[in-house]
Write a structure and sequence with these properties.
Strand order of the largest sheet of chain A: 6-7-8-3-9-10
Oligomer: heterotrimer
Strand content of chain B: 15-25%
Strand content of chain A: 15-25%
Chains: A alpha/beta (about 290), B alpha/beta (about 280), C mainly alpha (about 260)
Order of helices and strands of chain B: EEEHEEHEHHHEHEHEEHHHH
């Protein structure tokens, strides 16, 4: 028996201005994210994407001081009334720099760190750590020191550490910036696999759309602290292509190619978002 | 010209980082050094200004052997911009920061001032001249770091991962700036794993894997070869992957750049349209 | 003093009999070396203390790195020797220099074979530390955690330090030229970026830890626990004997320098 996916993140007129900042980092954010969605959050540098992410797990307002307006509820919890330590049970956060989020001397101890903060019994912690390692393929790394690992391995360990908290949402803020392209693709695929397997909701911040386009169904574009586009990835790329390009968003090259050819009147149809769909669309055009 | 002759390098820990590297960098060259993390790219970069000296072979910068010359002296000709600007910034103002290298090289205060003003203008940083570099955003700090190295007008500019964390617009600006530089006769060497950026800039590509050069050639020929690209833990540019699927329609397979792709497809699709009345 | 000295204090993840000892045991070994080293200024005692640690260094497979750090500590040893030549006899200068080396070795051995995590676990068990921690920082584990995190960051910052030196040298900075004043000033472009990077890393780390529930309302449960084994008890007993005997001898006899 299927049930309608519930709203897991709801924001109403959410705004935040950092202490000492001249203007708000985010303003008037209205957002509704449903369970199990894969969301791509993007926009030019300084548009507020990271600030929005920080609100989702309570780093704003607990870690970063400033003025908060509006409301934000995540998996039933109101962000303004809960500490980050409570919210961390619902929302996991993977940071851009793999090295600075791992700190224990072995992978196993690092993954155990999160659950150790939750007041669980030793057996429960053990179980969560084992599960997290198995599902991210990091079991073979368990006795290695984090600084001995490659960037890709480090991000997997970071993911495992987050999964051990058993969150319902995972936010990843440019998680592949420091990784080489092949590793970046592996990490993204792993994230999507986990989403499907564990029913997670995923929010990825990324400049390079082509990396995530294959997995994200929905895109949210921000500019100057506001949401300027929010919808299905394909449709948004199709209908709002000029807006995105104008903002300097890294639209996939195949999408750019298609819109140029469409402008010339040589192709018709929806803008493809990744290579496979572009290839089949172009193939169709050729076979006329 | 910077000439690397059969350069090999082993770290004190015994780890062999470079093996038999033969490479020439001339003025006006635009080169991208690519490879997986740990392939030896940064190690190679550090050989170009003498920070590291080869265990075997030698590096000649305009005829001078790097083992016989100080880093300070080589830095006058070879500007190395490190990946993380925070490793460089320490001054009270952006102006002072950019002046640092000039002062170290012994230029007179008048020359220093002039160069600082010029460089800040060229990089769009004039408005921040009196600002503390630490108050600037990440992208702006990266530009300040670049300005600090460019101010002394090195003949060879080495950029270590200049595109990480940058949004598309910032990358565009960087690309244009690089084009400007090498059209002035400077040599620009970019260490990067940003395949799309390289595809759109079309430099000469040197592919490193496990300390060895495994391929060299123009971007469109190197980046469209799957086995090579895989070896270096890279991914072929979107255009290349797309055109692999389209070779059955008689299109070439070595396309990496969007604009060339467009022209080729315009031709092909116009043909098709003609056939269909 | 070069960065190589730091190598002699860096923990390496090995599984030797020494590494597997409880950190409290190892700390007691340090005390058992430090007490006689400080109570007596006798050259034979110093040599004995130094030599007694060698088997531990070998068993712990850290002997090579210890030797390297000693070499780097030569400058400071020479300084101590010279200063003491002026304030005492030739023999006492030797004894005191040896004392420095004994202490250096003892701490070096401790830090090379004790993981910061285990250190933290050990500190957590000490009531005084927990009390202090709760008073100052609000949580019983905070103090030990702060300490162990600082220790963990040291190797990372060492790499950063090298990068900063490389980056500034690439701008023409010459660290080995000029008079003393100039040389000191030349370290400003090294220290400022390093300081800021350290702060930035700490903040990023703090963010990441808070995002994983630290410090937690109910206090932390450790997955791993410290356990004292028979060999620990044996060594603890032996160390206590040494400490007590040292004090007894100190109060009953006067031991000359040679």
């Amino acid at each position: 028996m299927a049930h309608a996916p519930r709203e897991i993140i709801v924001a109403n007129s959410l705004g935040f201005q950092y202490v000492g900042a001249k203007k708000a980092a985010i303003l008037g954010i209205d957002l509704s994210i449903k369970e199990n969605e894969f969301i791509l959050l993007t926009g030019p540098s300084g548009c507020g994407k990271t600030s929005l992410c920080r609100c989702l797990n309570g780093l704003i307002p607990n870690f970063y001081q400033g003025e908060w307006t509006g409301e934000l509820h995540v998996d039933g919890l109101s962000v303004t009334t809960q500490l980050t330590s409570e919210l961390s049970r619902k929302v996991g956060y993977v940071f851009q720099n793999p090295e600075n989020q791992l700190f224990a001397l072995t992978v196993e101890k690092d993954i155990a760190f999160g659950p150790e903060n939750l007041g669980l019994t030793r057996e429960e912690i053990r179980q969560r750590v084992d599960e997290a390692m198995s599902v991210t393929g990091t079991l073979p790394l368990k006795d290695l020191a984090p600084y001995e690992l490659s960037g890709g391995q480090q991000q997997r360990v970071a993911l495992a550490g987050v999964l051990a908290m058993k969150p319902s949402v995972i936010v990843l803020d440019e998680p592949t910036s420091f990784l080489d392209p092949r590793t970046a693709e592996d990490v993204m695929r792993a994230v999507d696999d986990l989403r499907k397997e564990l029913g997670l909701t995923i929010v990825v911040v990324e400049h390079r759309l082509d990396l995530v386009a294959r997995y994200a169904e929905r895109i949210i574009v921000m500019d100057e602290g506001k949401i300027v586009a929010d919808g299905n990835l394909e449709e948004t790329l199709d209908e709002k292509f000029d807006l995105l390009e104008g903002l300097g968003v890294g639209v996939p090259r195949v999408s750019l190619l298609w819109t140029m050819l469409r402008g010339d009147g040589l192709v018709s149809g929806k803008v493809p978002t990744h290579v496979e769909s572009a290839a089949s669309s172009l193939g169709r055009m050729m076979n006329h | 010209m910077i000439a690397l002759e059969k350069v090999s390098f082993t770290y004190r820990s015994g780890q062999r980082a470079l093996q038999d590297i033969d490479l020439n960098i001339d003025g006006g060259d635009f080169i991208a050094i690519m490879g997986e993390n740990g392939a030896g790219k940064t190690t190679l970069a550090k050989h170009l200004n003498g920070l590291l000296r080869p265990s075997e072979g030698r590096v000649l910068v305009d005829g001078e052997d790097t083992r016989k010359v100080s880093v300070a002296r080589l830095s006058r000709k070879v500007g190395l911009v490190f990946q993380n600007p925070d490793h460089l910034l320490f001054s009270e103002t952006v102006k002072d920061e950019v002046a640092f290298g000039l002062k170290n090289f012994g230029f007179t205060p008048e020359v220093v001032d002039k160069q600082v003003t010029r460089t800040l203008e060229a990089l769009g940083l004039s408005e921040y001249s009196e600002t503390s570099p630490f108050l600037l955003s990440g992208g702006e700090r990266k530009r300040v770091a670049l300005a600090a190295i460019l101010a002394t007008e090195p003949d060879y500019l080495i950029l270590d991962e200049p595109t990480i964390g940058q949004d598309y617009r910032q990358k565009e600006r960087l690309r244009n700036f690089i084009l400007q530089l090498y059209s002035q006769g400077k040599a620009v060497v970019m260490i990067t794993h940003d395949v799309e950026f390289v595809a759109e800039s079309n430099p000469k590509v040197i592919l490193l894997s496990q300390g060895r050069i495994v391929a060299r050639g123009q971007a469109d020929s190197v980046l469209s070869k799957d086995e090579l690209v895989k070896k270096a833990s890279l991914v072929r540019p979107q255009m290349s992957r797309l055109f692999s699927e389209l070779t059955k329609y008689g299109l070439p397979g070595d396309v990496v750049d969007v604009h060339r792709a467009r022209l080729l497809l315009e031709e092909k699709l116009s043909e098709v349209k003609v056939r269909v009345p | 003093m070069s960065l190589r000295t730091l190598e002699g204090f860096k923990f390496s993840t090995l599984k030797t009999p020494v590494h597997l000892l409880d950190p409290r045991t190892k700390f007691l070994i340090v005390i058992a070396v430090v007490v006689p080293a400080l109570l007596f200024a006798n050259i034979y005692v110093m040599i004995a203390l130094l030599l007694s640690q060698v088997p531990l260094l070998v068993l712990g497979r850290v002997a090579r790195r210890w030797a390297l750090s000693l070499r780097a500590g030569v400058f400071l040893s020479a300084l101590i020797f010279v200063v003491n030549l002026f304030t005492g006899s030739y023999l006492s200068a030797i004894a005191l220099t040896l004392r420095f080396l004994v202490l250096l070795t003892s701490f070096s051995l401790f830090f090379m074979t004790t993981s910061p995590d285990d250190l933290g676990l050990a500190l957590d068990r000490i009531g005084a530390v927990r009390w202090l921690s709760r008073k100052w920082l609000g949580y019983p584990n905070a103090l030990s955690f702060t300490f162990t995190t600082a220790v963990r960051l040291v190797p990372t910052l060492a790499v950063d330090a090298q990068t900063v030196v490389d980056a500034q040298r690439s701008r023409g900075l010459e660290l080995d030229k000029g008079n003393l004043l100039k040389r000191v000033r030349n370290y400003i472009p090294i220290l400022i970026p390093l300081l800021l990077i350290a702060i930035r890393r700490s903040l990023e780390l703090a963010e990441a830890l808070e995002s994983r529930g630290f410090p937690g309302k109910e206090g932390r449960t450790s997955l791993f626990q410290l356990r004292l084994r028979p060999v620990d008890y044996a060594i603890i007993a032996f160390s206590l004997v040494v400490i007590v005997a040292s004090f007894w001898i100190f109060f009953h006899y006067k031991i000359p320098v040679l």
